[in-house]
Amino acid sequence: DTAVSQTPKYLVTQMGNDKSIKCEQNLGHDTMYWYKQDSKKFLKIMFSYNNKELIINETVPNRFSPKSPDKAHLNLHINSLELGDSAVYFCASSQGYSGITTQYFGPGTRLLVL
Amino acid sequence: DAKTTQPPSMDCAEGRAANLPCNHSTISGNEYVYWYRQIHSQGPQYIIHGLKNNETNEMASLIITEDRKSSTLILPHATLRDTAVYYCIVRANTGGFKTIFGAGTRLFVKA
Question: What is the residue-wise DSSP string for B60-107?
Answer without folding.
Answer: -EEEE-TTSSEEEEEETT--GGG-EEEEEEEEESSS----EE-S-EEE
